[in-house]
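Batch manifest line 442
LIGAND: nicotinamide-adenine-dinucleotide
JOB: complex structure
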Amino acid sequence: MKKFSIVIAGGGSTYTPEIILMLLDNLDRLPLRSIKLYDNDEERQNHVAKACEILIKEKDPTIEYVATTDPEVAYTDVDFVLAHIRVGKLEMRSLDEKIPLKYGVVGQETCGPGGMAYGLRSIPGVLENIEYMEKYSPNAWMLNYSNPASIVAEACRRFKPNSRVINICDMPIGMEHTIARILGFKSRKEMCIRYYGLNHFGWWTSIKDKDGKEYIQDLIAHQLKYGNCLADDDASNYTDSSWFDTAKKVKDIIAIDPTMCPNSYFQYYLFGDDMVAHTDPNYTRADQVVDTREKRVFGECARIEKVGTAKDTTLQIGIHAEFIVDLATALAFNTHERMLLIVPNNGAISNFEKDAMVEIPCIVGKDGYEPLTVGEIPHFQKGLMEQQVNCEKLVVDAYEQHSYLKMLQALTLNKCVPNANVARKILDDFIEANKAYWPELK
Ligand code: NAD
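JOB STATUS: finished
ARTIFACT:
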């Protein structure tokens, strides 16, 4: 069986060790000859680099390993690029969240105003990595899950239309693990789902078992009562209580349209005031990630490096990373697996913009993906999606034209921002904070 070579771009991410564990656990499905880490920040990558080397050598010493900040070394002779970069790192995420909060607005790091700021930072970083791939390994595929995924995907569609890049997100998969438990399936893979929307902005419209029995009405009835929690759930079943609150909040979201099951991210766009009321403006999600996840992962990697073995490690396989192996396997072995991807609409949603990047089920094989048809969508979903997609397109316009006005329009249009006065204040603060990253807007 052919063996593959992988580079993880954004090697210094706290998700890197979990992704490596997932890859090592799936060598029978996706055999590997080489794993490389690439980051443009050596110091940060060094937090995980040595521990990753030990994990790999202890599992399969035949796999070559290198951690580098040299794009040529990283991108030469690779089959897959797993890209999860965060331009500006968590320090900038913190500002994406806190600046809007100053004006009583939820920041929200992907689709809210925080996401707009993050998008303008991310576009050049993602394009740069695509260019490295095309220069050094033109036949490779990039599996890109760098956020904010919708804006990054729109930039790929516009500036790199022929590139071998597939944009993907694990968020619906995370919710499907719970949905499977609610409906009594052993695994989410027993469910055949229909879903449509934008990234972090979509709805499940059908969930069938292998015999074709429909379960969506059962799920709607459950979510109207309990949200996306099990009936007897409590906060102790969640890694932190905010995830429990998020799962419960689905009850309020679905009450607005009980014909389909919403992504829990709608809490930010439809109930922004509730989110603001429950957020400490001086301690947001970014601070929480630094104090919990980053401390835990970097601390454990330092311990592995010190003792020289990962035999008794507390690092766990990233369950969210399974979609990466599924996608790479589908491309490598033409499995025709059905997966949710972020792709150009091109008529799949028949009453929605052709050139919008939508998140819909696709069939994946060796030549890439083939989107499935969705058909017409109702006014409520269409209205929300049109507002959001145009807001995201305006961010890419602002990047392309270095335009203050386009960015102001993007923020004014954003569902989380109440009016143009507030949009302007947020934008002016964002410009100050993002001087090292954004193009100069005129
Ligand atoms: P992180 O800050 O821990 O790590 C990101 C790394 O990217 C950093 O080490 C940084 O130095 C590096 N980086 C920044 N710009 C780069 C560039 N131009 N080239 C190479 N490396 C660069 O971030 P994180 O919390 O691990 O998240 C990483 C990314 O993955 C984010 O965009 C996050 O939103 C995304 N993410 C996506 C999903 C999904 O399914 N869509 C799931 C989890 C995380």
